[in-house]
């Protein structure tokens, strides 16, 4: 049995008597976990085409480069702080330590709801994609919600097993996704109906009317960013693994998506890519493959699109489970939610809680979609579109707050890195992320498919913001009613010498 001393050494709360599985993840595994949450094939096939279609801008490839640069700057202070604060609820713990415990508890609720929204929303697209694939390739007429439940079951099983099992599964799936997209990129430059041009990478193609919507769409591709620090209690080298894996993942994601979006403008032709994206949407890549590749490869690409969504489901499920574990360990949520599997050391209660919530939401949307005018597209136009954009809304807000939290944290540290790490980079990142957040707010009705602002434009963001504000109020209540719990907020992953 793990002793209290050992638990402290690996960043556990000795009073909790529990901990996650230790020293299982290396840099490659963690890189795959981060990238899996962004679902490479899904982003290129679905996100990029949607961005072209909705914004009408050719500069979508440049948006990935710009956002990648912002997140690299954000990572400077964020990962420096990760050397001091090792907690499975990363943003929550960082904001608690840098901006105060009330802000930390509020951010925890924002994080929980945002990640759940991303995970459950993606399950809607997964169900639709799998149902369509089975109908087209095997003639099976299976409702989308049955397919979503199949994905829900697989994710739930992986969630309560060892984290390195999830990492291995995700590693295989992500590698296959990269192969498909790379083949597409090679084909694109091999055909190039209008020649090879860099117009889509020029600033004038992005910085015009609609740039806010373009950045709002593209930022969703980076939403697995926090995973590097979330798994810091389970990596082989807590001081370096998360830092190196996060930098690698962000650079790979930004460069790969930018290049692949550029390849799409080459494959379709710069004069046609927007119109073709409007016409075919997420099917555009597969329509291209149908014209240039064997039938079996088209089927394989469609199948990998589905497994891409499954990989994202697993990644976000694991993140939510660890957030719940972290909050339960510190008694911000009921302590029972910190229970881990005795066999696998996975966050058992957190995983089950996320699965239960996902099941409830899936059932609600399955009932609501019966006989709906959207028909087969119901889970895509509602469950997926509404929830994933709502999740991105909350997570960008959290990243902005975390940037300012880094500044607050290091201001109180006697020994700290230089001004670039502790002040300049976090300030630049914070201001930039606030700007992106403002663009998401301004374009939210567009992002969720509304022709004009309506009730959903306010209701969905409120689902994220209002619980966050209530969390702040709840933290002040804890300070007076349960001071011992309040004192431990954000401390679950700290080494003893770092407690103050």
Task: Write structural notes for this entry.
By secondary structure, the chain is mainly alpha-helical. Helices cover 72% and strands 0% of the residues. Helix 5 runs antiparallel to helix 6 (101-138). The two termini are 28 Å apart.
Which terms would index this structure?
mainly alpha, 500 residues, disordered N terminus
Offer a quick outline of the entry.
This protein has helices at residues 4-9, 27-38, 40-55, 60-82, 90-99, 101-138, 144-159, 163-191, 211-219, 227-230, 241-268, 273-280, 284-292, 295-329, 348-368, 378-411, 419-442, 444-447, 455-481, 483-487. With 500 residues, the chain is mainly alpha-helical.
Task: Tell me the layout of helices and strands.
Elements: H1 4-9, H2 27-38, H3 40-55, H4 60-82, H5 90-99, H6 101-138, H7 144-159, H8 163-191, H9 211-219, H10 227-230, H11 241-268, H12 273-280, H13 284-292, H14 295-329, H15 348-368, H16 378-411, H17 419-442, H18 444-447, H19 455-481, H20 483-487
């Amino acid at each position: 049995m793990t002793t209290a001393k050992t638990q402290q050494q690996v960043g556990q709360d000795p009073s909790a008597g529990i901990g996650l599985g230790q020293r299982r993840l290396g840099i490659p595994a963690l890189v795959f976990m981060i990238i899996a949450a962004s679902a490479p094939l899904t982003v290129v096939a679905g996100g990029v085409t949607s961005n072209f279609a909705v914004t009408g801008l050719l500069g979508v490839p440049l948006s990935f480069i710009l956002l990648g640069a912002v997140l690299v700057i954000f990572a400077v202070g964020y990962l420096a702080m990760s050397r001091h604060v090792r907690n499975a609820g990363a943003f929550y713990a960082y904001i608690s330590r840098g901006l105060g415990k009330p802000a930390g508890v509020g951010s925890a609720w924002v994080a929980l709801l945002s990640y759940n929204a991303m995970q459950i929303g993606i399950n809607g697209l997964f169900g639709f994609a799998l149902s369509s694939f089975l109908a087209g390739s095997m003639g099976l007429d299976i409702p989308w919600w049955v397919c979503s439940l199949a994905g829900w079951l697989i994710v739930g099983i992986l969630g309560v097993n060892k984290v390195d099992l999830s990492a291995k599964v995700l590693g295989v799936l992500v590698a296959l996704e990269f192969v498909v997209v790379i083949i597409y990129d090679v084909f694109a430059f091999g055909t190039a109906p209008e020649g090879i041009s860099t117009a889509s990478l020029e600033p004038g193609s992005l910085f015009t009317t609609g740039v806010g919507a373009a950045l709002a769409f593209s930022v969703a591709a980076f939403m697995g960013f926090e995973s590097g620090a979330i798994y810091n209690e389970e990596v082989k080298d807590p001081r370096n693994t998360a830092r190196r894996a996060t930098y690698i993942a962000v650079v790979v994601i930004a460069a790969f998506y930018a290049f692949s979006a550029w390849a799409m403008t080459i494959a379709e032709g710069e004069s046609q890519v927007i119109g073709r994206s409007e016409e075919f949407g997420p099917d555009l890549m597969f329509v291209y493959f149908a014209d240039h590749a064997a039938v079996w490869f088209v089927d394989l690409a469609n199948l990998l699109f589905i497994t891409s969504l499954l990989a994202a489901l697993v990644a976000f499920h694991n993140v939510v489970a660890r957030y719940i574990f972290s909050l339960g360990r510190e008694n911000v949520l009921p302590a029972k939610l910190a229970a881990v599997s005795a066999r696998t050391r996975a966050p058992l209660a957190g995983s089950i809680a996320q699965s239960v919530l996902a099941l409830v939401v899936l059932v609600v949307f399955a009932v609501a979609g019966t006989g709906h005018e959207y028909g087969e597209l119901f889970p895509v136009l509602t469950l997926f579109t509404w929830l994933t954009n709502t999740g991105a809304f909350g997570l960008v807000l959290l990243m902005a707050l975390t940037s300012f939290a880094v500044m607050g944290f290091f201001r109180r540290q006697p020994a700290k890195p230089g001004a670039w790490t502790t002040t300049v980079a976090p300030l630049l990142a914070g201001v930039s992320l606030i700007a992106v957040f403002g663009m998401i707010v301004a374009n939210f009705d567009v992002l969720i498919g509304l022709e004009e602002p309506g009730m959903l434009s306010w209701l969905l963001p409120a689902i994220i913001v209002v619980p966050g504000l209530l969390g702040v109020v709840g933290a002040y209540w804890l300070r007076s009613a349960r001071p011992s719990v309040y004192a431990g907020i954000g401390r679950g992953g700290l080494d003893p010498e770092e407690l103050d």
